[in-house]
């Protein structure tokens, strides 16, 4: 039964029966599975089984929880519900939890701090906001965020004592503290939400053509063609755009990322 499943770690430790009953009951109430204690695992839904597995871990009263993709086998709706439940449990229990996932949206929504590992190498550690706003390298920039960050090859050049970055379609002045990177090849990154449409005249605006429009409820995911490059943009859904439209765009100030060098 579910009761026996949760109680098993305590029975192995030879915890007194009365204490086992009390601890199982408390955990079941916390996880809202009290009415399931007499059922067999085969009679449970995926979400209920997930909570039973959590209960079996929690009843031991550990100092640390290690969860290895605990929601990977659930459907999307139940997965979102369980994310919220896990956050509530963490607030109630206050137990350090190490949560392993390949889903960057899941990591961003659940965690207080994220450690991003690629091919066995730690890339960055920080809060969700820190890794989103200030990715340590191109891998982190491309992995965190949906749709993914735009990235183009470029070069930092110095002319008349002034620095600027140049790509095939874009150039922008840079601060002097990046002088150590002069004449080096870099990757320029811009998040799609930091691409905006220019209304009226603006001297540094970039000419673009609408190639693909994907309605996503409150937003539109728009793919633009700019000379020989592609630019992804996120814009409000009340913006009236059509395939083939020609428009002008710019990148928000302070939102450029330079990889293989320092970030702006």
In short:
This protein has 264 residues and is α+β, with helices and mostly antiparallel strands. It is 29% helix and 33% strand. Strand 6 (162-166) and strand 7 form a beta hairpin.
Describe the model.
This protein has helices spanning 2-12, 17-31, 46-58, 76-93, 104-110, 128-133, 138-143, and strands at 64-68, 96-100, 114-118, 121-126, 150-159, 162-166, 171-174, 184-190, 195-197, 206-216, 219-226, 229-236, 246-251, 257-259. The protein is α+β, with helices and mostly antiparallel strands and 264 residues long. Among the domains are: 1-61; 150-259, Beta Barrel (OB fold (Dihydrolipoamide Acetyltransferase, E2P)), CATH 2.40.50.140. Strands 7-6-5-8-14 form a five-stranded antiparallel sheet. The protein has a five-stranded antiparallel sheet with strand order 9-13-10-11-12, with no helix packed on it. α2 packs across α3. The radius of gyration is 25 Å and the shape is elongated. The mean pLDDT is 90.
Write the layout of secondary structure elements.
Blueprint: H1 2-12, H2 17-31, H3 46-58, E1 64-68, H4 76-93, E2 96-100, H5 104-110, E3 114-118, E4 121-126, H6 128-133, H7 138-143, E5 150-159, E6 162-166, E7 171-174, E8 184-190, E9 195-197, E10 206-216, E11 219-226, E12 229-236, E13 246-251, E14 257-259
Helix pairs in contact: 1-2, 1-3, 2-3
Largest sheet: 5 strands, antiparallel
Structural class: alpha+beta
Shape category:
elongated
Number of helical elements = 7
- Any idea what the radius of gyration is? 25 Å
Beta-strand content estimate: 25-35%
Strand order of the largest sheet: 7-6-5-8-14
Series of H and E elements: HHHEHEHEEHHEEEEEEEEEE
Low-confidence stretches: none
What's the CATH class label of the domain at 150-259?
Answer: Mainly Beta
CATH architecture title of the domain at 150-259: Beta Barrel
Query: What's the CATH topology label of the domain at 150-259?
Result: OB fold (Dihydrolipoamide Acetyltransferase, E2P)
Within CATH, the superfamily of the domain at 150-259 carries the name Nucleic acid-binding proteins
User: What is the helical fraction, as a range of percent?
Assistant: 25-40%
Number of strands: 14
N- to C-terminal distance: 57 Å
Q: Output mean pLDDT.
A: 90
Organism: marine sediment metagenome
Domain ABC transporter: 2-144
Protein name: ABC transporter domain-containing protein
GO molecular function: ATP binding; ATP hydrolysis activity
